[in-house]
Design brief:
By secondary structure, the protein is mostly helical. The chain is built from eleven helices and no strands. It has a single domain, classed as Heme Oxygenase, Chain A (Up-down Bundle). Bound molecules: protoporphyrin IX containing FE.
């Protein structure tokens, strides 16, 4: 099986679990409180920033998936938070996020190829995010936000995802590396599920 197919198949259950967390369900229904949404976006900012820094430091791994600056989604998150009257710094950094960033660093330290599995989950999530945006436009403040993060590519989304999958299948990996890529993808699914849970549990900071 190719790497793209292996990743999709082996994370199918994890996807179902992530999709059904309270936060994702409320977001999909357009009923997630504004403050919870911005807190979640800030946590994603920290994850993306960590991955982007490591992509920069490990150009070989980044080149394998033809990673470009257009995939620096942290910039989109910062702009969206600004639209919503807040900023990354104004949002709490949650324990689950700190743990996730630690995991991102330690998996990459094992072998930078881990970055491919880590980024796969976030880039893949754009497939569903496009639909979530439609619901979010109706939330309070929804009309103030461009949702650059959740819908980064617009009509180009299917082509971009196709190109990403093609890149995943364009290089050879050892068995140990494939195992690490899949393990890294699972770590992101688990980390996001934990972040979603903590976002829902923590008292949020009112936005401007
Ligand atoms: C309400 C929440 C969500 C919905 C409705 C949703 C929906 C979708 C849909 C429709 C696809 C495209 C499936 C296909 O064409 O084969 C997809 C793909 C994907 N989603 Fe989600 N998703 C949600 C949440 C998430 C979350 C929270 C994550 C990450 C933590 C995630 C990660 C992915 C990944 C990695 C893929 C690509 C799978 C592959 O083709 O390899 N999704 N999602």
């Amino acid at each position: 099986m190719t790497l793209a197919a292996t990743l999709k198949e082996s994370t199918g259950e994890a996807h179902k679990k992530a999709e059904s967390t309270d936060l994702q369900r409320l977001m999909m229904q357009g009923q997630l409180e504004d403050q919870l949404f911005t807190s979640y976006m800030a946590q994603l900012f920290h994850m993306h920033s960590a991955i982007e820094q490591l992509m920069g430091a490990n150009a070989g791994a980044a080149a394998l998936i033809r990673w470009t600056a257009d995939q620096e989604h942290s910039k989109r998150l910062a702009a969206d938070l600004g639209d919503l009257g807040t900023s990354v710094d104004a949002q709490p950094l949650l324990k689950a996020t700190e743990a996730m960033v630690g995991t991102i660093k330690s998996l990459t330290a094992e072998d930078p190829i881990a970055l491919i599995g880590l980024f796969y989950v976030l880039e893949g999530s754009m497939n569903g995010n496009r639909y979530i945006v439609r619901a979010l436009r109706h939330m309070p403040g929804g009309d103030r936000c461009g949702f650059r993060y959740l819908d980064p590519y617009g009509e180009e989304q299917p082509a971009k995802w196709g190109a990403f999958r093609e890149a995943l299948d364009s290089f050879e990996t050892t068995e140990a590396q494939s195992e690490l890529v899949v393990r890294s993808a699972h770590a992101v699914f688990d980390g996001i599920a934990a972040i979603c849970e903590e976002v829902m549990a923590v008292e949020t900071v009112p936005n401007a």
